Amino acid sequence: xxxxxxxxxxxxxxxxxxxxxxxxxxxxxxxxxxxxxxxxxxxxxxxxxxxxxxxxxxxxxxxxxxxxxxxxxxxxxxxxxxxxxxxxxxxxxxxxxxxxxxxxxxxxxxxxxxxxxxxxxxxxxxxxxxxxxxxxxxxxxxxxxxxxxxxxxxxxxxxxxxxxxxxxxxxxxxxxxxxxxxxxxxxxxxxxxxxxxxxxxxxxxxxxxxxxxxxxxxxxxxxxxxxxxxxxxxxxxxxxxxxxxxxxxxxxxxxxxxxxxxxxxxxxxxxxxxxxxxxxxxxxxxxxxxxxxxxxxxxxxxxxxxxxxxx
Amino acid sequence: xxxxxxxxxxxxxxxxxxxxxxxxxxxxxxxxxxxxxxxxxxxxxxxxxxxxxxxxxxxxxxxxxxxxxxxxxxxxxxxxxxxxxxxxxxxxxxxxxxxxxxxxxxxxxxxxxxxxxxxxxxxxxxxxxxxxxxxxxxxxxxxxxxxxxxxxxxxxxxxxxxxxxxxxxxxxxxxxxxxxxxxxxxxxxxxxxxxxxxxxxxxxxxxxxxxxxxxxxxxxxxxxxxxxxxxxxxxxxxxxxxxxxxxxxxxxxxxxxxxxxxxxxxxxxxxxxxxxxxxxxxxxxxxxxxxxxxxxxxxxxxxxxxxxxxx
Amino acid sequence: xxxxxxxxxxxxxxxxxxxxxxxxxxxxxxxxxxxxxxxxxxxxxxxxxxxxxxxxxxxxxxxxxxxxxxxxxxxxxxxxxxxxxxxxxxxxxxxxxxxxxxxxxxxxxxxxxxxxxxxxxxxxxxxxxxxxxxxxxxxxxxxxxxxxxxxxxxxxxxxxxxxxxxxxxxxxxxxxxxxxxxxxxxxxxxxxxxxxxxxxxxxxxxxxxxxxxxxxxxxxxxxxxxxxxxxxxxxxxxxxxxxxxxxxxxxxxxxxxxxxxxxxxxxxxxxxxxxxxxxxxxxxxxxxxxxxxxxxxxxxxxxxxxxxxxx
Lengths: 311, 311, 311
What we know:
By secondary structure, the first copy, chain A, is an alpha/beta fold. Chain A is built from 13 helices and eleven strands.
């Protein structure tokens, strides 16, 4: 029923964008619908067959986040889902790591001069005045996982296309937006080391068992029904309590920003530009055929065979 | 066997109160028995059908805590349980939030001038020289949950009357004694956001699965047997090791006191006095018939129907 | 297959010790084999029937750790296991707590003047440039558990000989190398209090359920197969990413060193030298027949009967 409703009322970022002029170019990769205090945001990067977290998505997310920051009463819950059922977000666009790459976006976030643009995006999600929920169908890797960890809650379907991974160590990097640090809080130190150092996939059932996500559902319908009911319930409550409660929980469970800048963001930036890091970026772009819909993107993190292609 | 023993040897706060004169008025809401280093404290607020965490309970808890602070060898374990099998503690007395409310208790704890009286009570439980165990039968909500989170350990029966919730967000507040912060350490960031922002109930089985409580037991007898054995075992050991171990664990797992004061206690105080907060306090007192034994108190946090009465 | 290979290629600390001269006397309690970036280190204290964590093991660990600190590319994963299938590590040598005890080792680590030698050993494991994995067969108690908690990952077999405990509270002490603090991050505050204050055993299945270890396996073969595959996979990746990722995870999940020094190491040192602490050390040496292979060492932490022998 939910999916039927969805087809009827899809509106491209209209209700909110009336309020604030978009600061970044708009690419239409996020479709939003709003009803009774809940904003559903479906992310579908039509420029990429694998829903790449690239400049198009980042620009649209930047605009959406700025609108949400300014709207602390009308919208009380934001639900992020993916329009591509094979990929929620596979990872960042590795082209952005190549020398001479030019983006239409600023390198650093104007509101957070110490935070690079993608790191600022996910950091700012943690402090939105709304409750935020990630509804996961499809693969979640790299900054895709950092995106969902920055949301307040995470729910997934048990579809085999759902896989969670931080793949940076396999590429000679570390998790640049603090993904490993958020995981350490959710799944403990030992399991974080296991998944992040090995860059392997967790399926939805395992992820729910160890606390990576809140819950896994047998079907897409059950997943969406549960989340829409939860969102509708939270949206009944005054914004003032939601905002204050988020601040309190963040203060004791979010990585400290200076630690995140130094040991995630800056370490990532440095490692991607070492000879080893540059070599692996080039190899990655080659074996993925520039991040096209391929066996590598579909199955990376599953078996040793694919991993061994790389380093 | 334990329950039979209990009926035989109930003593109203005598063994300990010989040591120290009670600082606060005594209301007899806590019955204590002591044996072989274990103090069993049964809380039964005879002024309230729902075992309200009100001035009577707070005064008696204040006296008990002061006695325990001074007794660091004779008693090595304290077991808190409820004499009301439907309610462990439902929440604070909302009348205390009304303008002009007068309590026989000081507003701030004399030993902790930055801590309001109820916040000081639960904070001081965390640093008692004794091991502390909450044995949960009946509903635990609001400051009731903050009370059990401040104990070292939590065990519950699987009775349907056992429900855990932080309900403050639904009333436009935040958890004033740090309940959400303790939960973030126990059940992770994502599940804390889910339960606290939605103000919904967790049953005992779920609570044990996600780490909210240590363990859930099929029957009341199994629950009490397990806890009494555990308490008796800990009470065999010297106080010096219990005290030092508690300090070490607290140092890495308890919310920092300045964060708790600012983002829990003070945020709560502020939000309860906004127009929205005052309106919801009045509505709460109305729909609960001044916190009487009612469907709202029994089932709050279960279904959307009751929630919708409110805001 | 793994165990057969192991018998063929055992080399006593040769490959690495060519690089650096050993700083401490060598006792041959650690046998190492290296292959494709993975160092397998089997600990077998032939001076003790219970694989005591004594001066012999500590000297050999000290040498191994110094070699690993200097080798940040050739070895990328270290796997620690026990040559004694009944005991991984039972605890520290209690003789070292007696007045006048003399060790061939320095009292404080030369590289960490604030850390006693055993505390420095396990602390330094956390910051090795290699991924570290503990493969657990046999009992793990006291500093043995602190050793495995200092490793990045922990895997065990479900053999009845596998038991995990921090037994210090039962001896009037606290966990001197931060074991309780690491546990609080992995299994939560409530369960840490339960296990550490009661000094009781957790079996492998329970330990995996609550997050004390990563996973428990039905057989020794499955355990070793899983770990060797995991180690081989991580060893494919460049050291630079492993090192950076470990730094990030450590920064948010390891007890702060000043807290560990004050509330673990120094509290332990103080409590072992009180009259109660000295009395319990003497009793311990007596009931264990100086830590020989006995019912106490095999079953300590299981039943109240043995505990009651002691205090």
